[in-house]
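[step 3/7] inverse_fold.run input=structure_tokens len=248
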């Protein structure tokens, strides 16, 4: 359970190899942090540098597309490690160069980014309701706010994840549990390595600072960097012909 200073003791990361999630865990790290569970596909141990002395980091296998396993998985983590204070939903894929034209590849991306987000998110919500406390932090993207022609399938998956997260948050009101949706812009991370940075690009640490501040103030939506909230208030309503030109 969160301590008197609203600092987490147990953190579960779904997508345990995410460097953005690692930065968030480090930013949340305090003397109260006792357990970090890094759930990821592919096996092997993953570590996070810079955590408080005594924090136990555990790696476990997790597959976002194994939807039927998610309820038992989350329940088992809580049974072994105690109540989950913060759960970070950090898994996701960009898709390959043909994802906008190849139906199977696009379907696989939807299965990870949307279906996986829904099935794991519902499993986490069940556990947090049972506890009567805890936060699900969902790493969404500004790509889902208005989909760009150049990556519209990926954008559509993030729009689906974002809509699910915000709706789930409303459904948890009054339960003691909550959801915080995080909308980063372009993040210079392992997933975007080799891509040209977009305007207002940031680093994982910038997202981590925004997430930590959002958790302290109990926000339901966080933008990283914050200026993107105002940028997309305009971009949402620009005419389609202008939007397409901006994507060139």
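[step 3/7] decode complete -> sequence:
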């Amino acid at each position: 359970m969160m301590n008197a200073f609203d600092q987490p003791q147990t953190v579960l990361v779904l997508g345990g190899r995410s460097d953005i999630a690692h930065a968030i865990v480090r930013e949340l790290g305090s003397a109260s942090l006792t357990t970090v569970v890094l759930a990821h596909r592919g096996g092997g141990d993953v570590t996070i540098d810079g955590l408080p002395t005594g924090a136990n980091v555990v790696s476990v296998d997790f597959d976002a597309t194994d939807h039927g396993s998610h309820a038992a998985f989350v329940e088992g983590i809580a049974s072994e490690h105690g109540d989950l204070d913060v759960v970070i939903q950090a898994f996701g894929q960009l898709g390959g160069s043909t994802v906008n034209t190849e139906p199977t590849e696009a379907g696989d991306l939807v299965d990870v980014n949307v279906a996986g987000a829904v099935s794991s998110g519902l499993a986490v919500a069940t556990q947090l309701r049972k506890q009567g406390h805890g936060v699900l932090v969902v790493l969404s993207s500004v790509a889902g706010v208005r989909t760009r022609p150049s990556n519209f399938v990926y954008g559509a998956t993030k729009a689906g994840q974002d809509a699910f997260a915000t709706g789930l948050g409303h459904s948890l009101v009054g339960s003691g549990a909550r959801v915080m949706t995080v909308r980063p812009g372009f993040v210079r991370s392992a997933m975007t390595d080799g891509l040209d940075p977009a305007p207002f690009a940031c680093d994982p640490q910038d997202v981590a600072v925004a997430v930590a501040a959002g958790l302290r103030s109990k926000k339901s939506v966080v933008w990283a960097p914050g200026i993107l909230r105002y940028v997309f208030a305009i971009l949402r309503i620009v005419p389609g012909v202008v939007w397409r030109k901006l994507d060139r």
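[step 4/7] annotate
The domain at 10-246 is CATH 3.40.50.720 (Rossmann fold).
Residues 44 and 59 are 7 Å apart (CA to CA).
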